[in-house]
Amino acid sequence: MRQAWRFRLLFVVACVFQAAGVAQSQAPYRLTLKEAIDKALQANLSVLVSGTRVHESEGTAARRFSNLLPHVRTETYANYQNRNLRAFGLSIPGLPVPQVIGPFSNYDFRIYADQSILDLESYRSWKASKEELESGKLDFQDARDLIVRSVASLYLNGQAAEARIEAAHSRVRASEALDALARAKHDAGTATGVDVLRAQVQLANDQQALLVAQNQYKQALLVLARSIGIDPGTELELAEPLQFQPIPTSQAETVIASALFARSDYLSLASQRQSLTEQQRANRARWYPKLSLNGNYGALGRSMGDLRGIGLIQGQIDFTIFDHDREGEAQELSSRIERVDDQLADLRRGIAEDIREALLNLESSSDQVKVAQQGRDLAERELELTQDRFQSGVTNNVEVVTAQDELARAQENYILAVASYSDAKFALARAAGGTEKNLGQYMAP
């Protein structure tokens, strides 16, 4: 009997520990902004594709550099053949020269080597590929910066949705208190049934707003999880709430000047232009002479025991006399450079516009936060006063309901203002360049 009770007790304890483990495993994952960005940079498709393009450009540069290195190969032959001398024009009238000789065999073992001594076209093509590789690396960094900007905005949407839930909870608590007060005063005969009904309607409206806010928050987390490569079924929780964290402002001209040396997309275009310039030089070098050295060494004989060492070394100079293709290529490259110059000029104007717009939004949203905070404080004070007036029997609860609506608008204005300020910081970080590297300084309180 005691043994049975022991087994039952052990079973209950095991079930308790298992339930605790399941509860612990199902705890929401607290996600910080930095973690969200790190996960997105590891899983986002555009970043992965840009990374493969960098590897591809590295392979292209290695192939073009191989034209400047020695090329070594080996060949081995073992022949068993007949020869038709008459087919080669070998016949002597009056002499019995056989028409076909053989069969005979010969063996040839040879190593061939070629080395370019002077080839400016290949050298400039290799330099162009190096610039293309640098452009690919900058495009890769620009893709990462764009993902940082995108994930930061999605995280901000989640923060704003979470702040709306907190505001909705506070309004529900206030409405519950108003409903309880209206019922108590009605039971005491100091309030009418309309006051009770009005409080119930307000409570229902606030509960509805809370449900909407909770659903919007869950949707924001779903979008965030998808963008950072997390299973949408994973329960997330934002570790950083929405807060107003002001940063020092800078002069637009200063930020614009530094952005031209930090924006990966602008530097990528500059590298593309330099690559095209090197290709133009390679195009002109097609007229220049090419000097190379090649040779071979090996053994040749009629049998394996009769092999004799032989070899050859020679220098070679190549000149291009007529090449109409070079003119067409030169026209193509000139047009591409002109197109890149136009893109650079347009991007410079775009960078200046983005920076000035971000600074304007930063200044405006900062002022909005201050005004919205004052409005929220006043709305909270108004609600307290109207609640006291209704509790004292000075008036009905119409003023309380009106004050609750005013507070809801004030809370939403504050959330929008803080979110707008944070988004302006993200926009400035992107416009100034080096988003992945410098985002922290825009988020520091």
From TrEMBL:
Cell compartment(s), UniProt: Cell outer membrane
Main location: membrane
Pfam families, per database record: OEP
Any single GO CC term annotated in Swiss-Prot or TrEMBL for this entry: cell outer membrane
InterPro entries tied to this protein: OMP_efflux, TolC-like
Keyword terms: Cell outer membrane, Membrane, Signal, Transmembrane, Transmembrane beta strand, Transport
Record's signal peptide: 1-19
Gene Ontology molecular function, alphabetical: efflux transmembrane transporter activity; porin activity
SUPFAM superfamilies: Outer membrane efflux proteins (OEP)
PANTHER family (UniProt xref): OUTER MEMBRANE PROTEIN TOLC
Family statement: Belongs to the outer membrane factor (OMF) (TC 1.B.17) family.
Name of the molecule in the record: Outer membrane efflux protein
Species: Candidatus Sulfotelmatobacter kueseliae
